[in-house]
Amino acid sequence: MATTTVAAAAIATAGAGAAQATTYYGDKVRSSIYYSGTNCMNYVIWKEDGSKFDGYTCRGVVEVDQIVNKGDWLGIEPTPAAGLYVSCHTFNLRTYETLVSKGEYWDEDYAGSGSLGSLFGPPPPMCMFHA
Asked: Is 40:84 a contact under the CB 8 Å cutoff?
């Protein structure tokens, strides 16, 4: 019984710490997205020079390392698609703190006409964070 309580407290503490994780200029972060449900996935990465990179992969995973510059968007953002499940994770390679850890499943395209998603536009960034 005590082991369960300690484990639950550790999980709660880890979760609370992840929400308050910080980055500093020059830190390196690693972002990964694992996906299933579709053969391929479109994604977006903002590069260090401020330009947008539109990517496409059929490997089941996308991974990128980025250097923190305050004000930049960091991470990898999947493009919602019908039947796509993504699990995204970003952590600070200096401190090993988790910055983003989420999963999402889309049962329909946000771009499709008539869907609730198309009424409100695309979802806000799910797997990226603003440094």
From this structure: no
- pLDDT (tens, 9 = 90+) of the chain, 131 residues, equals 443 333 333 333 333 333 456 899 999 999 999 999 999 999 999 888 888 999 999 999 999 999 999 888 899 999 888 889 999 999 999 999 999 999 988 876 554 444 444 455 555 678 888 88
Task: Give just the sign of the alpha carbon dihedral 102, 103, 108, 109.
Answer: positive
Cα 118 from chain centroid?
Answer: 22
| In contact, 90 and 29? CB cutoff 8 Å | yes
Question: What residues are paired with 130 via a beta bridge?
Answer: 73
Query: Cα(117)–Cα(50) distance, rounded to whole angstroms?
Result: 28
Q: What SS3 string covers 72-114?
A: CEEECEECCCCCEEEEEEEEECCCCCEEEEEEEEECCCCCCCC
